[in-house]
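Hi P.,

Sorry for the delay on this. The queue was packed all week, but I finally got your sequence through. Input first:
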Amino acid sequence: MPLALLSLAVVAFGIGTTEFATMGLLPQIADGIGVSVPQAGNVVSAYALGVVVGAPVLTGIGARIPHKRLLLLLSGLFVIGNVASALAPTFGWLFAARFLAGLPHGALFGVGAVVASRLVAPERAGRAVSRMFLGLTVANIVGVPAGTALGQQFGWRYAYCAVAVIGLIALAALAAFVPHQPRGSRAGIRHELRAMGNKQVAIGLATAVVGFGGFFAVYSYLVPILTHLTGLSDSSTTLVLALYGAGMTLGTLIAGPLTDRALRPTLYGGLALLGATLVAFYFTVHSTVPALLTLVVMGAMGALVTTPVQMLLMAKAKDAPTMAAASNHSAFNLANAGGAWLGGLAISAGWGWASPALVGAALAAAGLGLAFTGGLMDRGSGNSEVITSSGTKAPTETDQVTAR
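Then the structure:
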């Protein structure tokens, strides 16, 4: 079990590295393929678009494929997408390659979350899912700075080659350590889509888009905020981003046990504390030490939201949780785009570089309102359940995760 979870974490590490390292290599990419930096930034959008499209589509296509085999196929597509990125001769080819690399992102996380939850006892499912997400947060501490440094030193193509190697390592580890988990007799695209029709799944996805949009409203502009207001130099921002990643890792570590004990209170608390921390950042951003301490807490609170949202969606989708779990990562990428857009509007309106923090706090509060709405709807419908056995029978009392 630990090696299987480690294999899933390696997949998440590779995904986090390829997604965020691109942002630090835009000047090198622009020079390498002869476009402007703003135009090169469109490859980030291409990856995000691939995530949004690929999560439901690939999960639906693979609805009858056993989970382990599907993980291997998706990991292979991830490797191909990054190799194609490294070899892309023109901007058009690179745009297409980044879209291809993003396609398996959400499906890998969704299928991986379901697999992780079934590797352990039901009462430890949240911890298992959070261990997989650790790979994503560690990527922000190690993988992204290392990939950025490699690309700056030797060329951006080498960064994508390194990510492809990580993908191959993950592929081998998944093949060696993840056990076979057969699909139930009712598995299929119709079954998954029927589960997606649950109103609570829709509210959970909306909570992720709106609430986590508050996180990205600040994260998207963190470097210019720190250089313009806090007074940090450009050379120190990589270290600060790693510090931010350390906060996310801390939040992920505590999210698992808290989610297993009380799913909805953890979600409520995470969104409320995220909003409060964003308000605090608006006032601490002008002083280096308070700003950095607030950043660590902000990263922790953002990560604290991720696991309960994932587990809630799996609970509400009941015995067809894979597409709901995968669509959560489409929601996170929509949150990325929406939060960045709204934060940018505030800056463009002349409200100042600190204004995205207040925009983010408002989004976190709106997400909390949506989460509360889902909780109120739940009061008369009984406990939510997450299927942790591989069969299709309704779970017994010991197979339940209480989502209240």
